[in-house]
């Protein structure tokens, strides 16, 4: 059926609802299916100068991030060790006070 230029196309009286056929599927699932043989790290696997430079940049970033994490962990460890030392000193003082009080009670 062909429409002429002067033909009037009528809209339906009741608007049709928009239906999403695949509401549970995301783009990442679809894109993974479009390229079944490629991995996400395809740049790293190639042997071009760009890929070697990119790999070096990623490795440098990873080393810097690991160094930052180690620095924060060492600082947290020092903080916890200081807290533990303070707690041991407080416990030692409490034990000394208990011993002194028990001696006073025996003397009376």
From TrEMBL:
<comment type="function">
    <text>Inhibits the enzyme activity of ATPase.</text>
</comment>
<keyword id="KW-0496">Mitochondrion</keyword>
<comment type="similarity">
    <text>Belongs to the ATPase inhibitor family.</text>
</comment>
<dbReference type="InterPro" id="IPR007648">
    <property type="entry name" value="ATPase_inhibitor_mt"/>
</dbReference>
<dbReference type="Pfam" id="PF04568">
    <property type="entry name" value="IATP"/>
</dbReference>
<dbReference type="GO" id="GO:0005739">
    <property type="term" value="C:mitochondrion"/>
</dbReference>
<keyword id="KW-0175">Coiled coil</keyword>
<dbReference type="GO" id="GO:0042030">
    <property type="term" value="F:ATPase inhibitor activity"/>
</dbReference>
<feature type="coiled-coil region">
    <location>
        <begin position="63"/>
        <end position="104"/>
    </location>
</feature>
<protein>
    <recommendedName>
        <fullName>ATPase inhibitor, mitochondrial</fullName>
    </recommendedName>
</protein>
């Amino acid at each position: 059926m062909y429409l002429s230029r002067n033909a009037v196309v009528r809209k339906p009286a009741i608007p049709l609802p928009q239906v999403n056929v695949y509401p549970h599927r995301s783009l990442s699932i679809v894109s993974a299916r479009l390229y079944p043989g490629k991995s996400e790290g395809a740049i790293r696997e190639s042997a071009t100068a760009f890929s070697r430079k990119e790999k070096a940049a990623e490795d440098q970033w990873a080393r810097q991030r690991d160094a930052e994490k180690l620095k924060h962990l060492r600082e947290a460890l020092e903080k916890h060790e200081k807290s533990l030392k303070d707690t041991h000193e407080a416990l030692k003082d409490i034990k000394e006070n208990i011993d002194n009080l028990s001696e006073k009670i025996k003397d009376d």
